[in-house]
Amino acid sequence: MVIGSMCWAGGSLYSKYKGSGSVTVNTMWQLIAAGIAFFIFSFITNEWKVFQWQEVSTGAWLSVLYLITMGSLAAYSAYVWLLGVRPATQVSTYAYINPVVAVMLGVLFAGEQVSLLQLAGLAVILASVLLINLAKQKKEKRKLIQQPAEVKAA
Q1: Which entry of 13, 92, 101, 146 is 20 to 30 Å from 6 by CA?
Q2: What is the pLDDT of residue 120?
């Protein structure tokens, strides 16, 4: 898990500062690399030997299709595009929001129950992301205010 997180952060920074070409091309190369890595590790761990295709329900296949389109293609393309137009530290806040969205989708579509403690945790997450972004906005405003003063002095 730690190595995966480190690779994700490194890949995001590399994509932001060294990536060339279109967002679509960058996204596809990263998805292809991840697919190849998962394919190789599935053979190393012998997952294919115990997998029973006939045991997978239609609902499960539809869920996989949804995750491919919305979770990978759409969401990851948006992430890579955002890396090109916003600071990496700001874009990385998605990692805190994803669990909140997942819990809310579970409540709305799967009838899952959420405890008061879980709601408090979600509120802490949202408040933290808000505070991070407010602090960055204040810092950017200060820079904009200071720039005209520096230009006048020159």
Answers
A1: 101
A2: 93
Give the global pTM.
0.59
**Dist. CA 105–CA 110, nearest whole Å:** 7
Mapped onto helix, strand or coil, the DSSP state of residue 92 is: coil
* φ, ψ for residue 82, nearest 5 deg: -60, -35
Distance CA 107, CA 95 (A): 20
Closest CA to 27 of 68, 80, 66: 80
| Ranges of the chain with pLDDT below 50 | none
Dist CA 107 CA 115 (whole Å): 11
Distance CA 83, CA 21 (A): 14
Q: Judge whether 91 and 82 are in contact, CB under 8 Å.
A: yes
Q: Where are the domains of the chain?
A: 1-87, 93-154
Structure token pair of residue 117: 């403690």
Give Rg (Cα) of the chain.
21
